[in-house]
């Protein structure tokens, strides 16, 4: 076995245009899969009451630059297919962030408490793929973490079986 096989050169992180524009790391394989699966579960169960958006560019009043949650939840409304919106100024009722391998939890929690909640977001979900958990944060500092069973967000009435997301 060669020395190079045991001690590969240090990984150097390079920020891509994707990361610069969205102010977050590029999604990984598991991140991408979870974003789609969770979105599908939510749409199948709650599309009569809510609209779900992925990678929506939010221009929040207290954020230094636009933020892009993985999923945003808004009350259902009529879609204007003719006049699209590039940057949304209306705060969602819930944001969902899926932790990427290159992110740390504190970074995401800071985004939740410093950007989302001051803008009027009622709850924020933090999905951690590696340990298959979802934590729901509320502006009053309450945190509910789910590792099995049914997660329930009291702010919007949404319930999801974890096995529907992490199967």
From TrEMBL:
One Pfam assignment: Uma2
Domain of life: Bacteria
UniProt cross-references to InterPro entries, sorted A to Z: Nuclease_put_TT1808, Restrct_endonuc-II-like, Uma2
UniProt cross-references to CDD domains, sorted A to Z: DUF820-like
Domain Putative restriction endonuclease: 24-143
Protein name, UniProt field: Putative restriction endonuclease domain-containing protein
Coiled coil spans: none
């Amino acid at each position: 076995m060669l020395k190079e096989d045991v001690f590969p050169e240090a990984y150097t992180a390079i920020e891509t245009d994707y990361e610069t524009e969205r102010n977050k790391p590029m999604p990984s394989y598991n991140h991408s899969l979870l974003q789609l699966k969770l979105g599908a579960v939510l749409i199948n169960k709650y599309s009569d009451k809510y609209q779900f958006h992925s990678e929506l560019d939010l221009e929040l009043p207290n954020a230094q630059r636009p933020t892009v949650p993985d999923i945003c939840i808004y009350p259902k409304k009529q879609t204007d297919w003719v006049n699209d919106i590039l940057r949304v100024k209306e705060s969602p009722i819930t944001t969902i962030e899926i932790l990427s391998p290159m992110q740390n939890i504190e970074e995401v929690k800071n985004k939740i408490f410093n950007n989302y909640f001051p803008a009027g977001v009622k709850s924020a979900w933090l999905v951690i793929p590696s340990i298959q958990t979802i934590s729901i944060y509320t502006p009053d500092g309450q945190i509910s973490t789910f590792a099995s069973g049914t997660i329930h967000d009291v702010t919007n009435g949404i319930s999801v079986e974890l096995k529907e997301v992490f199967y």
